[in-house]
Amino acid sequence: MNSIKNNITESDTIDALLDVAINIIEVVVKNISKERKSAQSFLVSLNQTLEDLHNSIVSTSRHSESMSIEFDSLNKSIELKIKNLNEQTQKATSISSLKELVDNELKSLSEDFLAKEKLERKDREMLSTSFSEINKRIVTLEDKLTTYKKRLNEQRFKSLLDGLTKLPNRAAFDERYNHEMHLFNVQPSDVTLAVIDVDHFKSINDRFGHTAGDITLQVISKALQKSVRKSDFIARYGGEEFVLLMPGVSLENATLPLDKVRKVIKNIPFKFREKQIEITISVGATQFKKGDTLLKAFDRADDALYEAKNSGRDRLCTSK
């Protein structure tokens, strides 16, 4: 990526820029292909685990059916022998013949009861093993799902992060902006929206190169993060433009902290090629008001920024 970035900086012809664009597309396609293969690998692994789990459950079910048949057969045999014992007892003509009959039938019944006990023990052991196996596969499945869910969350987090400044990006801002506007429409409260633009940023790139421009944005981003409250939401909107949402703060109360942010940026010691450079920002701010849409509120803040730019830059302008 660094070589591509250097090529963009050094390219001075259409053909060279086209070559760089092709390189960027190749990198993107390669990353997409890598992620797709990773997802496919996970799905194959997940499918195998589900299949193993299914087979374990089916096997346990078949075992239970088989045991049920054997238990039924033994129970019927026991019932038949008890019935036969009753009938033979009533027909017995002497004590000796009754004793012989009882001894024989009880011996046979005892063998059946022992067989039943053995079968029950075998069934319990088999079920215990099967359920242990099923539980193990479920744990494996949960682990795989947890791992993949974590990966998806990490990817979502990365997709909402600006690669250069490590601030939330435009997509993250749009999501938060929608959320704040929805809350405002449900229960009106003070919310200030500010749009921040780095003054004369193009000249920094032109005079010192894109690397200097990148460093400038990174330094400004860190300064912005340190200058706002934890409850505020700062994002890189695009290029050299940043956006700030300040929930619970009226436009009147936001003026002082926003102007303080402007002064903080102005006082950062920037130095390029042994030359001290003063970097300033222009800020446009507004407050959510009844009847606002996302576009209306943003346009007001943008108009205020336009006013700050046209009236000399390095200043804060507000729009009610």
Supply the key terms.
single chain, 8 helices, alpha+beta, two-stranded antiparallel sheet, 320 residues, 5-stranded mixed β-sheet
Summarize this entry quickly:
With 320 residues, this protein is of the alpha+beta class. The protein has 8 helices and 7 strands.
Description:
This protein is of the alpha+beta class. Helix content is 71%, strand content 12%. The chain has eight helices and seven strands, in the order ααααβααββαβββαβ. The chain has helices at residues 2-10, 14-91, 95-159, 170-186, 201-208, 210-227, 251-266, 294-310, and strands at residues 191-198, 233-238, 241-247, 270-272, 275-277, 281-287, 316-319. It has a five-stranded mixed sheet with strand order 2-3-1-6-7, with helices on both faces. Strands 4-5 form a two-stranded antiparallel sheet. A hairpin with a 2-residue loop joins strand 2 (233-238) and strand 3 (241-247). The radius of gyration is 39 Å and the shape is rod-shaped. The relative contact order is 0.08. The mean pLDDT is 79.
